[in-house]
Write a structure and sequence with these properties.
Structural class: mainly alpha
Strand content: 5-15%
CATH architecture of the largest domain: 3-Layer(aba) Sandwich
CATH topology of the largest domain: Rossmann fold
Protein name: Tryptophan--tRNA ligase
Number of domains: 2
CATH class of the largest domain: Alpha Beta
Organism: Biformimicrobium ophioploci
Strand order of the largest sheet: 1-2-3
Motif ('KMSKS' region): 200-204
Oligomer: single chain
Number of helices: 14
Binding site for L-tryptophan: 142
Bound molecules: tryptophanyl-5'AMP
Number of strands: 5
Largest sheet: 3 strands, parallel
Family: Belongs to the class-I aminoacyl-tRNA synthetase family.
Helix content: 55-70%
Length: 333
């Protein structure tokens, strides 16, 4: 059996990029009986980027409701909140003591912060917390806690999965073979979805289209996608267009071929966006209703998470016990 695991950081409202890049493929994978699926809300990770307690809490609720509304079968998979598993922060420490500082120096998120500071003429470490610096160790603990061998992620997360592999290798080398070496699974057909401004759709750029916007707002957001100044009738380049890229992420291959032709024939931007709205709205409308119902019923969400935590801890508790023993931490007898 393959053990598949992935998480989403609870720092905002789930957007089309999270859906296409992570949630949709993960729910598909969970239907395959050859897989055991572990999906979680990364709320400890959220604290690295977001110090607004209300936002972290609200986002946790929204992301949980999103997975459930989209039909994740929580009997066939393990769906939990990271902070409900106390073995994860404990494993983080065991791994921290096996992680080379030099490895963390190379992590993209940390390096980007340092580079931005340098460019602004600041102290390179200005605003850099130990949370940001050792973020890949926490992520390694998420993965290794459940000995996942497959980790479906977007391209931006590949480096972190590779670091988890390095840390696992070092631990195994030192204390014996405890961990499977995880691999990132990146679907090449699923591109990094672009946001309203054409950059990667990302909470931190504020350019997202939330997945479950009310219909009118969804239409407004789609109308805000940046386009060039070509008039109706002028041929448009599908391969550089965000409208086309989002279309492709939701359409069948036939629909994509038709839209490609329409672009070359000079479809008006207004018309292309109207069709895009109808396509996306058609696919999310039913789940959006379930989402609204779930948000109004926090007890249902919490119950699901408690059920997931119980299943997860049935694995993490005995495994951590073994790891403690491996490093020499156990009762004196
Ligand atoms: P996060 O919360 O930034 O993103 C969640 C997932 O969505 C993918 N994604 C995208 N895919 C396509 N197009 C986009 N525009 C787009 N934006 C985001 C991300 O690649 C990711 O797969 N550190 C992780 C969360 C995490 C995790 C883990 C993941 C914590 N522990 C263990 C896997 C395993 C993060 O911040 O993802």
């Amino acid at each position: 059996k393959q053990r598949v695991l992935t998480g989403i950081t609870t720092t905002g409202t789930p957007h089309l990029g999270n859906y296409v890049g992570a949630i949709r493929p993960a729910i598909e994978a969970s239907k395959d009986s050859d897989n055991e699926s572990f999906y979680f809300l990364a709320d400890f990770h959220a604290l690295i980027k977001c110090q607004d307690p209300a936002l972290v809490h609200q986002s946790t609720r929204e992301i949980a409701a999103t997975w459930l509304a989209l039909g994740l079968d929580t009997d066939k998979s393990v769906f939990y909140r990271q902070s409900d598993i106390p073995e994860i922060p404990e494993l983080t420490w065991l791994l921290t003591c096996m992680t080379a500082k030099g490895l963390m120096n190379r992590a993209h998120a940390y390096k980007a912060a340092v580079d931005a500071n340098r460019e602004a003429g600041e102290d390179p470490d200005y605003g850099v917390t130990m949370g940001l610096y050792s973020y890949p160790v926490l992520m390694a603990a998420d993965i290794l806690m459940f000995n996942a061998n497959r980790v479906p992620v977007g391209k931006d997360q590949i480096q972190h999965v590779e670091m988890a592999r390095d840390v696992a290798q070092r631990f195994n080398h030192h204390y014996g073979e405890h961990f499977e070496l995880p691999e990132a699974v990146v679907d090449d057909n699923v591109a990094v979805l672009q946001g309203l401004d054409g950059r990667k759709m990302s909470k931190s750029y504020g350019n997202t289209i939330p997945l479950f916007l009310p219909e009118k707002k969804l239409k407004k957001h789609i109308n805000k996608i940046k386009t060039n100044l070509l008039e109706p009738g002028e041929p448009k380049d599908p391969d550089t267009s965000t409208v086309f890229q989002v279309w492709q992420a939701f359409a069948t291959p036939e629909q994509t071929a038709e839209m490609r032709q329409a672009f070359l024939d000079g479809i008006a931007w207004g018309e292309a966006k109207k069709q895009l709205f109808e396509l996306v709205n058609g696919q999310v409308a039913e789940a959006r209703e379930r989402y609204e119902t779930l948000l109004a019923s926090p007890a249902t969400i919490e119950e699901e998470l408690q059920k997931g935590a119980e299943k997860a801890r049935a694995i993490s508790r005995p495994f951590l016990e073994k790891l403690r023993e491996a490093v020499g931490i156990y009762k004196i007898s």
